[in-house]
Amino acid sequence: MNAFFLSAIYTEAHASSDAGSIRLGAIDMLTAITYLIGIVAIGLFAAWRHKKKQGAAEEYFLAGKSLGWLSIGLALFATNISTLHLVSFAQNGFDTGLLNGNFEWMAGFTLILLGLFFAPFYIRSSIATLPDFLERRYNRICRDVLALISIVSAIVIHIAFALLTGGIILEELLGVSMMLSIVVLCVLTGVYTIVGGLLAVVVTECIQTVVLLAGAALITGLAYYQLGGTADSPGGWDGWSNLTSLLGREDEMQKLSMLRPHGDPDNMPWYAILLGYPVLGIWYWCADQTIVQRVLGAKDELNARQGPIFAGVLKILPVFLFVLPGLLAYALHLDGRLDLSLITVDGKVKSKGIYASMITELLPIGLRGVLVAALMAALMSTVSGALNSISTLVSYDLIKRFRPTVDDTSLVRFGRISATVALIFAVALVPALNMFESIFNGMATIISHIAPPISAVLVMGVFWRGSSSRAAATTLIAGSLLGVAVFTNNTLRPDSELNHLPGGFMMMAFNLFVICCILQVGLSLLWPDRPRISSDASPGAEPRSGRQLMGADLAWETPLAALKIPAPTRLGDPRILSLGLVVVMVGLYWVFR
Fold first, then answer.
1. Tally of structural domains, the chain
2. Torsion-angle region of residue 419: left (phi > 0), alpha (psi -120 to 50) or beta?
3. Pairing of β 344-345 and β 348-349
4. pLDDT digit string, tens, across residues 372-399
5. pTM for the structure as a whole
6. Which of 64, 99, 301, 494 is the most buried (most CB within 10 A)?
7. Burial of 347 (0-12, 13-18, 19+ CB in 10 A)
8. One Gene Ontology cellular component annotation (predicted)?
9. Cα three-residue angle 204-205-207, rounded to 5 degrees
10. 345 alpha carbon, distance to own chain's centre
């Protein structure tokens, strides 16, 4: 794409923009509709190709355990990234700079934990759900508690928040009501997800990841190019120098920093990220069924370990593709090159609408439809992944408990019904979630009160064989009630001291995590478990059959024992791949410190 072509793009974009409204042209609508029809058709085609096996529960819920590392990595990324990220990260980039990019880069370290330390146990125990793993490690109570939390969090966090942000931006771009656009997308997504199961979800997610990244790269590149040159003659590849110059002029160079000092006005200092994010990340990436189900569908242990590491590599991109565009928009606004009058009220920019404004201001007719397709790709991939995990949780953790002899055909039917019901509930929740000023921070705040007890119980269970069942159940229940109580207090009492802790919700998550860990350790020493040795494994020996691993067998002998697992080749060794990813991430943090 040469300079002449880019200059033509901007000329057409500004010439065709409607000063009174944000709307798409006929070409854009055609592009978006074509994408919708195509992705639904592909999902249904994937389901049709495997229709002879659709009665088998493992085929429907876990794709017949046939997924390779590439599919797992792409699916993990696509399920995680939603319209919430595109819209809210652009908003955060406009308001606070690159700061919220920490949620993406820190995810790489957590994905390494998933690939190296957690995935081997998940695969060897042949589980279908994460609550199933907790029952084998601890007891049935832990399974029930995690199943309930997982179902509720999937509906609220993965589906409802994604629908909210998707509805906001589609209402601005298409001129139709938010709820109508949400309902249409839900119906289309539900069709191939409920019919096709995990295989249809993963196939469409792989495609939607490519579309999503291409669309995000397009708007980032065009915003960067637009920032180059001068206000009178925009366009050029010196956008970064202009960005730093504009930020320096406003004395806001901290917007380029990922690691902020204590007392940072955005209340997310470096220690809050270092201490708080792992608590959120371990729950989200290592214990949340919606995410981990892609790993459970791996064809073997090696692919289950490699897939998350590949996803960690992909998580480098969102800082540049989702967060940076918002910062570029801020610089363009400072320089008078981006008209934000449509989202300005009483002289203040309402940054929730920044991404929609960038689409209509920076892109010409035709290319806007590509970005709308990318937004729909992000929304549909997240919703489809969450629906499949909900159907799996309900089928395996609820239905099979009360009807253990249920056949696979009935199990799949129950799964489809539960996904439909969950989708209806999520749509009903959308208006209530619109109360948060920053949608992403609102979601993260909810997670910070949900994650601590689950992360504590999981970490203790996998890395300490002395972690006991009664202690885990008590910690899960008490920690969850404490999290709900704190969240309720902070919501109903905005002036509460808990709302003004240094480090905000990140340090809140860490503090709750420490409390849960102390409770778990203390109660484990008070109520130790009786040894439970699997029938086919002697102490210290590797079991011959993962299906019978129980209790302390599902914990590493030492915290670093997982690093002794060999790999067929050095090139594909998850340990070497993880080391390379760590080196890259440390280098990036050094550059943007």
1. 1
2. alpha
3. antiparallel
4. 877 777 777 778 778 878 888 888 888 8
5. 0.85
6. 99
7. exposed
8. plasma membrane
9. 65
10. 31
